[in-house]
Design brief:
Order of helices and strands of chain A: HHHHH
CATH topology of chain B: Amino acid/polyamine transporter I
Largest sheet of chain A: none
Number of domains of chain A: 1
Number of helices of chain B: 18
Low-confidence stretches of chain A: 7-21, 128-138
Helix content of chain A: over 70%
Number of strands of chain B: 0
Order of helices and strands of chain B: HHHHHHHHHHHHHHHHHH
Distance between the termini of chain A: 29 Å
Shape of chain A: elongated
Structural class of chain B: mainly alpha
Shape of chain B: globular
Largest interface: A-B, 29 and 23 residues
Radius of gyration of chain A: 16 Å
CATH class of chain B: Mainly Alpha
Mean pLDDT of chain B: 87
Helix content of chain B: over 70%
Number of strands of chain A: 0
Oligomer: heterodimer
CATH architecture of chain B: Up-down Bundle
Mean pLDDT of chain A: 77
Low-confidence stretches of chain B: none
Structural class of chain A: mainly alpha
Chain lengths: 138, 404
């Protein structure tokens, strides 16, 4: 289901990119880049926290930061000029990422190692989608 | 034997003092965004810096004048005010970014938000300048700065494709996000060719009473010290490329950069990163505060020396105090240190001609450097790189600002 959703999002974004010209493509790519960067940062932080490589305070602060950045990007998305459907899909993707980051932050805050390990293992790899951006901007 | 010791110490301090928040942040961001592709910008910046540092040492050794003093004598006050104002304003921004680096390193270790550390960091730097001598400031900070070698160790432990890294030493066109690519290129050049370093270096040479016999030592120290320093910046870029690119992480905030050593060194990597960032930035803060004080005091003909008691060089001491306070106020406002860093480095690239062209004219004037005037190679290399940085800055800064 998740794969199909991602594939349809990919298709939509690629069509938008193909039709909407460079500026729309770059705007979409920019939002995608922010989402991927912070989702993967959150995963990285989670993995390093489980491995004991980073202090709790840093992990919590960075996950908070990820959440803030994703929220700010969601707000920016609403102001950007792009087709409504693309905006809706990107918005959903950003919110889904934000929800996962928030869950991870709560698990780290509660020192729940099992949940953090599960979230790091099971959350979809965001950078798989970033291939869209590379294709779009080639 | 004494000369050998001087050279060794000079090289060691150059390596330890090379990396600061500008080169660290720009290299890490460039590595995370473009892989190895921007290594060439570090190479160009380092080559240019080698020439410029050697020149500023040569000028001081031969003329017994600092760069600022010689510039004022050669061009007169009205002209001198242009680089004075431009460099002082730029130095304030760079000071804020360096202090931001110190504060972030303390935030990493303690968890206390970085703006709270600004008065502490500024006060510690001020106390060291107030109580310390030039030798303590220069060599102490640089020797501690050797902790930055951790990035070279990390780069080797990641087993990069060295052939690909070597190819990236030659300039290449961007494969995506062209404007961001050029903006990073100019930021790296601005971070490498820091004009404040030239004022600091020439004033240091006068403080250390160099003469013409020091010209060969200066040449070796500048070449080897800056080259090894450039290796550190390349190592940061390589580590960032190998750690962040496979994970799809772009560096948007400093918080992310702190993770670059943990996959290789675990918890030690985290604390070593914090130490490297804090020490390197603290050393740079001292250099910038002194550089501005040297620039202003030498420009206006006031008494100046870091070795003098503050009461004997009161206006000189007042300038470095004001620079530190100004930097602290900017950080305390909570402005994102990475944004200040990137923008101040790019602006440095744009301002380079103002600082460098008069310097080049001086270095070709036999009234100042006698028979040690520049050769055509150093003139050509420096003009070409500074010209490139200027053009890139003029084109990319407005577009990057509008884009973000």
């Amino acid at each position: 289901m998740r794969t199909r959703w991602r594939a349809s999002t990919a298709g939509l974004i690629l069509s938008v990119v193909a039709c909407a010209g460079k500026s729309a493509a770059e705007r979409i790519a920019e939002h995608d880049r922010v989402r991927v960067a912070w989702e993967e940062t959150a995963r990285f932080v989670g993995a390093e926290w489980i491995g004991g490589a980073i202090p709790d305070a840093y992990a919590t602060r960075t996950l908070d930061r990820a959440n803030e950045e994703l929220r700010a990007d969601s707000e920016k998305l609403q102001k950007d000029d792009m087709p409504d459907e693309a905006r809706a899909r990107l918005g959903e993707a950003l919110e889904a990422t934000r929800a996962r980051v928030d869950t991870l932050r709560l698990a780290v805050g509660a020192s729940d190692r099992a949940s953090v390990a599960r979230l790091v293992r099971d959350s979809p790899r965001a950078n798989a989608d970033s291939l869209l951006r590379q294709v779009a901007l080639r | 034997m004494k000369k050998l010791l001087e050279i060794t110490l000079g090289i060691v301090t150059s390596i330890g003092g090379f990396l600061e928040v500008g080169s660290l942040a720009t290299s890490a961001q460039a590595g995370a965004a473009f892989g190895f592709q921007l290594i060439w910008a570090i190479v160009l910046g380092t080559v240019c810096l080698i020439f410029l540092v050697e020149m500023s040492g040569r000028l001081a050794a031969v003329s017994k004048q600092t760069l600022a003093g010689a510039m004022r004598d050669r061009f007169g006050y009205p002209f001198f005010l242009v680089p004075l104002v431009a460099m002082s304003l730029l130095a304030l921004l760079v000071m804020a970014s360096e202090l931001g680096g110190v504060c972030l390193s303390l935030q990493l270790v303690t968890g206390i938000s970085f703006p709270w550390w600004a008065p502490v960091g500024a006060f510690a730097a001020w106390l060291l300048l107030w109580k310390g001598t030039f030798s303590v400031v220069e060599k102490g900070a640089s020797l501690f700065g050797l902790v930055t070698i951790v990035f070279v160790i990390a780069a080797f432990r990641l087993h990069p494709d060295w052939t690909r890294a070597a190819h990236a030493a030659l300039p290449s066109m961007p494969r995506h996000e062209a404007m961001r690519y050029w903006f990073f290129a100019v930021s790296i050049l601005g971070a490498s060719i820091a004009p404040y370093l030239l004022y600091f270096y020439s004033a240091g040479a006068v403080e250390d009473k160099w003469n013409e016999t020091d010209v060969p030592v200066n040449r070796i120290t500048a070449t080897l010290g800056m080259s090894f320093g450039g290796v550190l910046a390349v190592a940061v870029l390589i580590v960032a490329a190998l750690v962040f690119v496979p994970r799809g992480i772009r560096i948007e905030r400093f918080d992310q950069i702190a993770l670059m050593l943990t996959p290789i060194m675990g918890r030690w990597g985290f604390y070593l990163f914090a130490a490297a960032l804090g020490i390197a930035c603290f050393g740079a803060m001292l250099e910038i505060a002194l550089s501005v004080a040297y620039l202003v005091a030498q420009g206006f003909g006031w008494k100046w020396s870091e070795d003098a008691r503050p009461r004997d060089a009161a206006r000189f001491s007042l300038v470095y105090t004001a620079t530190l306070v100004g930097g602290a106020l900017i950080v305390m406002m909570g402005v994102d240190p990475l944004a200040i860093t990137l923008m101040s480095m790019a602006l440095t690239g744009a301002f380079l001609p103002i600082a460098i062209v008069p310097f080049l004219i001086l270095m070709n004037d036999s009234r100042f450097v006698g028979q040690h005037t520049n050769g055509w190679i150093s003139n050509t290399v420096v003009c070409a790189i500074v010209g490139l940085a200027f053009v890139l800055a003029v084109v990319s800064i407005p577009l990057e600002v509008m884009g973000s």
